[in-house]
Amino acid sequence: MEWENSIIANIYVHVSKDEKAWLQHMATLYNTSISDLLLTYSIEELEDSYDSIVGELAHKEYINSGKKTVSMTKVIKKFGND
User: Fold this and answer.
1) Dist CA 16 CA 64 (whole Å)
2) Which residues contact 34 (CB under 8 A, 6 or more apart)?
3) Which of 24, 25, 21, 15 minimizes the C-alpha distance to 54?
4) What separation in angstroms does the CA of 20 have from each of 1, 4, 9?
5) Are 34 and 27 in contact (CB under 8 A)?
6) What confidence score (pLDDT) does residue 4 get?
7) 10, 13, 42, 74: least CB-packed within 10 angstroms?
8) C-alpha span between 9 and 7 (Å, rounded)
9) Phi and psi for 8 in degrees, rounded to 5?
10) Cα(70)–Cα(76) distance, rounded to whole angstroms?
11) How far is CA 61 from CA 57, 69, 76, in A?
């Protein structure tokens, strides 16, 4: 962010230790500071983004593992439908 020619005001946000750790983790993912992160994104947007990033990473890991899916029809056929 450009801070030249602007007056800086401090705003304090009270968060738990876990929330602070999570915010630091997200700031690292976005390669920015917690301050800039909070100026740019709402907590809800960050949670949605985190879920998306984790989902994409998990999907890539699954694809790279070479594992194959099995249809529910095959599972029922093999183990029954009690």
Assistant:
1) 36
2) 20, 23, 24, 27
3) 25
4) 21, 28, 20
5) yes
6) 61
7) 10
8) 6
9) -95, 130
10) 10
11) 6, 14, 27
Taking the C-alpha atoms of residue 17 and residue 47, their distance in angstroms, rounded to an integer, is 17
Structure tokens at 48: 């949605």
Quick count: other Cβ atoms within 10 Å of Cβ 18? 8
Task: Give the largest CA-CA distance in the chain.
Answer: 72
Which tokens sit at 44? 């809800």
What type of residue sits at position 74?
K
Single-letter code of the amino acid located at 77:
K
Structure tokens at 77: 């056929």
Residue keyed to tokens 């401090």: 10
pLDDT in tens, the chain (82 residues): 555 667 778 888 899 999 999 999 999 999 999 998 988 888 788 889 999 999 999 999 999 999 888 899 999 988 987 6
CB atoms within 10 A of CB 32: 16
